[in-house]
Amino acid sequence: MNERLVHISTPSNGGRLDHVLVEALGDLSRSRIQRLIRQGEVRVNGQPVLKTGFKLEGGEQIEIRLPPPLPSSLIPESIPLDVIYEDANLLVVNKAPGMVVHPSAGHESGTMVHAVLAHAPDLQGVGEVRRPGVVHRLDKDTSGLIMFAKNDAAHQYLQEQFKDRTVKKTYLALVDGHPPTPTGRIETEIGRDEKNRKRMAVIPDGKGRAAMTLYKTLEKFEGHTLLEVHPLTGRTHQIRVHLAFIGCPVSGDRVYGHRRRSLPIERQMLHASQIEVRLPGETMLRVFHAPLADDFEHALSYLRGDLLEP
C-alpha cells in the first residue's frame, strides 16, 4: 500500500500544530500525529516543522505525508456483530454497550476492531494500524451506530464528511433531572480539564475548541428526561460534557455525572440511534437506524412504571 499525502488549511483561529491536525484527521491518534511531526512528515507552507507545539496563526497550508501502514499484529476474533448494513465499501454496526472500539492500554483483545477483522479481513491495513477501518468512535459504554470503511478510498471519503460536518448524527440520552428548556442549543468551548487530564470540560473562550449541541425533549419523567441530541461538532465526550454543563448529566455517567447513581444501571444511558451519511458513489444521503440496547429499554420501562426495576 503506497504512502498518502494529505493537504489541509489551518483554521482562521490557528492553534497548536498537533491540536489542529488531531481535529482535522479524526482517524489518527494524537500520539501518532506527534510522531509524524517529529519524524519530519509535516510541512507548513512548504517548510518541515518538527515541533509538535508549533504555533499556527491561521490560514497556513499544511501537508502531511502518511507512510504506508506497518503490518498489523491484530488477531481477528469471532465475536458476534449486529450488522445494520454492509457493502463493498462500508460496514455499519450497532455497537453493544461495554465494548471498546479499538485496542488500547488495558484493552488488547475483545474490541470492535478484532470482531470486524474476523467479519471483513480486508479491513487490515485501511487507516491506522491499530484502528483499521475506523471512521469515527464511540465511548466504551455508549451503544449504537458505528461505521468501518473497507478500503482507503471509502475511508478518506467518509472521514472528509465528518471533517466537513455534513454527517448528521442523532443520539438518545436518558439524563438526570430536566433541562432548563424543552429544546435548546448548547454552545461552548471544550478542552482538557486542567485538574484531571483524563476528563474533558467546558473551558473559557479562546482556550478550547468550539462545540455545539442541539437537544430536544422526547419524554419527561419525575426525575429524568429522555432527550434527542444532535452534536454539530465532534469533540471528545461532547454530549456528556454539554449535558452535565446544563445540569442534566447522562444517567449512569460515572465521569461527568452524579457520584450516587439515580437508577440501578451499570453504564451511561447514551445511544447513537441514527446517522445520515453519503456513501461512496452515491448522491443521495443514506439514513441508518439502530434499536436501543436492552438495558436502555429496561430503564425506560422502569421509569414509565412498566417494570419494578430496570
Comma- or semicolon-separated keywords:
34% strand; 310 residues; Pseudouridine synthase; 6 helices; 3 domains; Structural Genomics Hypothetical 15.5 Kd Protein In mrcA-pckA Intergenic Region, Chain A; four-stranded antiparallel sheet; alpha+beta; 18 strands
Topology:
Blueprint lengths: L3 E6 L5 E2 H8 L5 H9 L3 E3 L2 E2 L6 E2 L4 E6 L16 E4 L3 E6 L16 H8 L7 E2 L2 E2 L10 E7 L2 H12 L4 E9 L6 E11 L2 E8 L5 E12 L3 E8 L6 H8 L24 E9 L6 E5 L4 H10 L7
Helix pairs in contact: 1-2
What report would you give on this structure?
The model has no long low-confidence stretch (mean pLDDT 90). The chain contains six helices and 18 strands. The protein folds into three domains: 4-66, RNA-binding S4 domain (Structural Genomics Hypothetical 15.5 Kd Protein In mrcA-pckA Intergenic Region, Chain A), CATH 3.10.290; 75-164, Pseudouridine synthase, CATH 3.30.2350.10; 170-272 and 296-303, Pseudouridine synthase. Helix content is 18%, strand content 34%.
